[in-house]
Amino acid sequence: MINLRNLLAVTALATTMAAAPGAMAECPDVLNHDMQKLRSSESVNLCEAYAGKPVLVINTASHCGFTPQFKGLEALYQDYKDQGLAVAGFPSDSFNQEADSAAETAEVCYVNYGVTFDMYSEIPVKGGDAHPLFAQLAEAQGAPRWNFTKYLIDRDGNVVAKWGSRTNPEDDELRAAIESALAAR
């Protein structure tokens, strides 16, 4: 005799297994990465964290003339997070202006500028040793030429725009692109 509880469990397992390949296939390549959070052993799957959300990705540096943009990036995040925007910062020493330790980077971000958006461990962002995330961003919109290059990824994982270091987070064009990405369903 078939136990109803066992039948339901088997059905649920089969449904989950059938859905898994499709769910994995839906992950956009640009987000198909596991990244370590800044000053943490926690790893984050970008697909899981940002599925269906527009994401602003920035390569950051702690000792750069553009470092004060952290304040504007945090304000931008606060303005749009409830509408679904994610902001992800990736410290990099590719331009020789990153702190010597994750502890110092964390202090700059969290203490000095009050960053609450996601910050990840240091990675290279240009050239042959660029992390695959930034290699994909570069392929889509061009490599970062300096720190605080901003890339906008839409809800479907398309890299739709790039702004250089001199574009402040308060920039009208940048905000309009974010609003457009948020409005697209």
SSE diagram, text form:
Elements: H1 4-25, E1 34-36, E2 43-45, H2 46-50, E3 55-60, H3 69-80, E4 86-91, H4 102-112, E5 118-119, H5 132-141, E6 150-153, E7 159-163, H6 172-183
Parallel strand pairs: 3-4, 4-5
Antiparallel strand pairs: 1-2, 3-6, 6-7
Order of helices and strands: HEEHEHEHEHEEH
Report low-confidence residues grouped into runs of 5 or more.
Answer: 1-24
Report the major sheet: 5 strands, mixed
Tell me roughly what share of residues is in helical segments.
25-40%
Radius of gyration: 19 Å
Instruction: Please report the total strand number as a whole number.
Output: 7
Strand content: 15-25%
Distance between the termini: 48 Å
Structural class: alpha/beta
- Overall shape: it is globular
Mean pLDDT: 90
- As laid out across the biggest beta sheet, the strand order is 5-4-3-6-7
How many helices? The count is: 6
Summarize the structure.
With 185 residues, the chain is of the alpha/beta class. The chain contains 6 helices and 7 strands, in the order αββαβαβαβαββα.
Task: Explain what you see.
With 185 residues, the protein is α/β, with parallel strands linked by helices. It is built from six helices and seven strands. The strands form two sheets. The chain has a five-stranded mixed sheet with strand order 5-4-3-6-7, with helices on both faces. The longest helix has 22 residues, at 4-25. It is globular, with a radius of gyration of 19 Å.
